[in-house]
Write a structure and sequence with these properties.
This is DUF3298 domain-containing protein. This protein has 570 residues and is mainly β. Helices cover 6% and strands 47% of the residues.
Length: 570
Amino acid sequence: MATNFLYAASLKTANGTKWGYINEKGEFEIQPEFNFALDFQKNGLATVEKDGKYGCIDKYGIIRIPFLFESTIEFSEGRAAVVYAGGFHVIDEQGTILTKKPYNYIGMFYDGRALVSDQDKESSFRYGYLNTHGDIAIPIQFETASDFTNGIAIVKLSDLQFALIDRRGNIVNVYPYFFVGYYGENLLAYRKDPSDLYGYIDLRGNLVISPRYRVAQAFEDSRAVVTETEDLQNRYGLIDRTGNYIIKPRYNDIMPLGEHRFAVGKALDEDKPYLGSRYALANWKGECLTDFIYDHISRFEQGIASVGDGKQAFFIDRTGNRARGLPVVRGADNVTLVGKLVRAMKGTRVAYFDRRGNLVWKQNTIIPLTSRYRVIEKQYEPNKDYLVYYPQVDGIKNEKAQVTVNNRLKELSKLKKIEPTEQLDYSYVGDFNVSFFQNNLLVIELFGYEYYFGAAHGMPTKIYVTINLISGRIYALEDLFKKGSNYLARVSSIIEEMISTDPQYDYVFPGAFQGITNDQPFYVDQDHLYIFFAPYQIGPYAAGFPTFKIPYTSIFDILDTKGEFWLSFH
């Protein structure tokens, strides 16, 4: 097997979406067997996921870190913070757990230190730092703390008292202010008390720029993004180290891109700035090098950045012109240089092109089930903020039944009429997977993510459609059980027992579970019935979709084993 650059790639199969790794010719070097896969890191390891647990493989596909962890694994300085058994730990590149106890939070390592958080005796969260051995290097004692940068970090000692510390935890300087932070280029944003504006001090605490800002970001490339306004309309500007404006405060958004370049954004709607911006590229002097034509501009790396304008994605150089020798990918949202290839993303879909623009690989749009049946992927994009990949079933003998099934799949996939030029208050991306297929039963998972612009987070949705491929019938939960069996009470009782005895369900809000309903969301596989709930329904948002896995053996006496639903897959 080759050990050159490999690229994460996915295939839709009858067992769901599976990830593996292709070479630059588009051939799978590591077969698609994982539920999720990330790019290879600099240490030659890649994070992959199976059955809800994460581990790492090498470029030969050999498992180097076993599938034990509940979070993705990103290494820095030879260490990674992972979630294991409900808490954060530190592991090395062999997967050895170095920490002696779980913590509430562990960050990435910088300068040999990782930010760590835990609760004190009063149940308040406090912060400190770990060393690369997983031991406490600086005691957990601070009210807030930052990552280390150039051997220093900013911590909050108490109300109206911040400090600059070194890697040993020694206090280098103390600042008697309500807030001190956003360290960049030896300058710190500060706020004397809660009602004051932001200004900037140096590391010794000397005043450099007098307080006048409502927002004051960190300095980068001798520039900082600030605003003086407090109304709903954003008015961001760019200042130099003396506080003089390089770009006057009149833009909806300004983002540092590195290499002395900035993205400057004008609001799509001045009365609704949260809807987003159209961006131009500006130089270090504040001069716009392009018109306001881009949906996004990435950070520059070695003189190149990627842009997208809603119709295509491509690369520009530091002058704002199209970069030579790199392709334009029509229909893509964004592009990235990865090894020798260009990765293009459209919603949740990934494709790879060579640098001449020739397609090397893209995810399949037809999922074969048998020689007769298949699921075909369709795309619906009526608006720049609304994209749905939805399934259509092919092969049902009764054509009328097939039309009925496919119309229902469209409806449940949330296809709706939206004008192309309409500015929505939200974005929506929908997708699907084949969750289970056996004999004549097909279970399709439809999922989506709706995000209202300006909100703290979006809302995921999920539903399963259980289809008999001979009759075209879509089953409800009651179809699995004998008539008169009172399955609602029986299954509810099992779930109540799971909540009260299994620690993994400790997150369920007390008293929130009141039993299942006739229209209860569910899905099945060969051996289990799965009952699930929406976020917030019985648990916190962070819990996702609380799901209860019930073996058929525990409810076999009330299953309708002679019924159409059961016989369709047994």
